């Protein structure tokens, strides 16, 4: 059971697959399947409230497939158990990001002084550049 704030996700909704890790590690990497591929179906999970599900699916995250399945690959550590914990921690962090709705942006207009400052800087930059043009030094 994965607990994230007020949401509990049962282990039956998580699919873990153990594969061989890539990278350095010598014989241990070649023999032991320590890397974990954790899959969590966001789209059809009964544990997630609807607004959280919508926010998570709306994210532009490359780990979320077109079917709404989050795939987390963990292979940072040497042991299967530690990689498993790491994958679950990353899943919890991903779900936490969808718990809080972002505050709506309030449109503001630039002040007259900031417009004048910007235009004054543009004028100054233009005169500097104009001064760089070729001169006839005869």
UniProtKB/TrEMBL annotation:
<feature type="compositionally biased region" description="Basic and acidic residues">
    <location>
        <begin position="113"/>
        <end position="124"/>
    </location>
</feature>
<dbReference type="GO" id="GO:0003747">
    <property type="term" value="F:translation release factor activity"/>
</dbReference>
<dbReference type="GO" id="GO:0043022">
    <property type="term" value="F:ribosome binding"/>
</dbReference>
<dbReference type="InterPro" id="IPR000352">
    <property type="entry name" value="Pep_chain_release_fac_I"/>
</dbReference>
<feature type="region of interest" description="Disordered">
    <location>
        <begin position="97"/>
        <end position="138"/>
    </location>
</feature>
<keyword id="KW-0378">Hydrolase</keyword>
<dbReference type="GO" id="GO:0004045">
    <property type="term" value="F:peptidyl-tRNA hydrolase activity"/>
</dbReference>
<dbReference type="Pfam" id="PF00472">
    <property type="entry name" value="RF-1"/>
</dbReference>
<protein>
    <submittedName>
        <fullName>Aminoacyl-tRNA hydrolase</fullName>
        <ecNumber>3.1.1.29</ecNumber>
    </submittedName>
</protein>
<feature type="domain" description="Prokaryotic-type class I peptide chain release factors">
    <location>
        <begin position="20"/>
        <end position="36"/>
    </location>
</feature>
<dbReference type="GO" id="GO:0072344">
    <property type="term" value="P:rescue of stalled ribosome"/>
</dbReference>
